[in-house]
Amino acid sequence: MQRLPEAIEAYRTALDLKPDYHDAFCNLVHVLQSVCDWTDYEERLAKLQAIVAEQLDSGRLPSVHPHHSILYPLSHQVRKQIAQRYTNCYLQGVSSFSLSSEQSLSRSTVSICAGSFSPLCVLPFSGTFIGSRTVASPFNLKHMLSTILRDS
Q: What angle do helix axes 76-94 and 41-57 make, rounded to 10 degrees?
């Protein structure tokens, strides 16, 4: 269920309480774009670009997720840096598993969620999808992400 008006109100309240809450700001920009609210669009995008640049320069995980970065006028290089940062975060989480390639979680899969409130949680779930692929084990996920990195 999409409760976009409530989300907009919640993000604005969060920003009233903490104006430098970058995750809330970037999520607000995303939701406002989703509902075609173009009020102050140029100013929002300029601030979003500045936030992302500062986060990348300081080595932090950007508040804009890779799959959202295509919605904004960011350079290809910045999009690649965002994707790289998230991939590194995922790989770090996956590397905490000590399973070999022969060990499988047969009926379990690994779900990695990079969210606003938790930069990384790696949890076993049954039938969880990452993109359009089911991941059969932490080894397979690590291999898939390593392949993406190598080919980029």
A: 50
- Contact present, 92 and 65 (Cβ < 8 Å): no
Give strand pairing partners of 121.
113
Q: What is the rounded CA–CA span in Å between residue 44 and residue 24?
A: 12
> CATH 1.25.40.10 in the chain, residues?
4-73
* Tokens 């104006």 -> residue: 19
Distance, in Å, from the CA atom of 42 to the CA atom of 54, rounded to the nearest integer, reads 18
Q: What is the pTM of this model?
A: 0.64
Q: Write the CB contacts of 136 (distance below 8 Å, at least 6 apart in sequence).
A: 104, 105, 106, 109
Q: Could you say which of 22, 65, 67, 76 is catalytic?
A: 67
pLDDT in tens, 70-124: 999 999 999 999 999 999 888 887 777 655 444 444 333 343 443 333 333 333 3
CA atoms within 13 A on the CB side of 118: 8
> Which CATH number applies to 4-73?
1.25.40.10
Instruction: Verify whether residue 67 is a known catalytic residue.
Output: yes
